Amino acid sequence: MNKPYHNRLSRLLSSIFKPRTPAPGIESLYERRFWALLNNGSEIITLLDSNYRPVFRSPASQRLTGWSLEERQTYGLINLTHPEDVGHLRHVFQNALDHPGEQFKVSFRTLHRDGNYIWLEGSIVNYLADDAIQAIVANLHDVTESKERSRKLLESHEQLRMLASHLQDIREEERTSMAREIHDELGQLLTGLKMDVSWLNRRTDLNEEASRTKIKGILTLLDQTVNTVRRLAAELRPSILDDLGLPEALGWYSTQFAQRSGIQTDIQILGVRNYIPKEVATGLYRIYQEALTNVARHAKATRIRACLDMEPEEITLAVSDDGKGFDVDRIGAKKTLGLLGMQERVLMMGGHFNLTSHPDQGTTIEVSVPLTSTEPETL
Fold it and tell me: What is the pTM of this model?
């Protein structure tokens, strides 16, 4: 241990504990108390010169990093820092050199003597100009376990998001298959049944009024069933989305929604986009469906305005209503499943989700998704 710096650090820090007018021998008592704290502490306290080489290190430094003071003096601080963190560390130290006496936060990885990197966090202060210290003081602690837990947590979240995205894809495939089967097979069966009943109605001599009324009722019921089948197939997966694209699908759904809900729904289409990836088109369509459903359920609105803006590198969908609105800050952590579902879809597409609402001032949802591909929308 470097004796001059040892003495300077001792005088500096032990002065914190000693009384204003110490009794004989009390100084050595407080020095012993200080060194007892330092020797048994878990903080890495390091004094560095202007070249960032250590001249003093607390006992915890060697316990936590494996390097002795002499070894650290040989290698220096920067040479043992993870390559990805060198730039950050140099920037922090330069700030400290430019602003003596100010504290700067730092977080970086340093090489342990066993060959693994550990995370250190803390602060540094430049006291090079202080005659009592003449060093840069670094106070650090090992946060490797905390960083590892955070990394695993983020990794777990990412895996859950990938799983949710995969399940969404499976769900859309099932919707598409089911819609096709309902529209083609069940629709054809109902159409054939209606043709048979119509044939019977034309060729059967029905003198009884009750029989004629019954057949007419069957034909009416068949018409209603066919319409219901078509509506269900469209709600599962509208063929217009695959055949004509997202703008036309949103326009069609706006008309259908307005007819069912009685809420005036207008959508504006801006820009021209030859290709919208299938997953983006599907995601934005489902978000639009959910947004309008939320308005019908909760907003008590009379009008909805929407806009789809297609730029070369980004597509934006905005939906606004004139409903009762709500306090976004108040619902914060207890967002509805609908809002959470929309936000999650946007994150899966690598986009941004923004919600604006105020009591009695309506609600606006804005979604922006990056576009990079130039492939055709449907194959």
Answer: 0.53
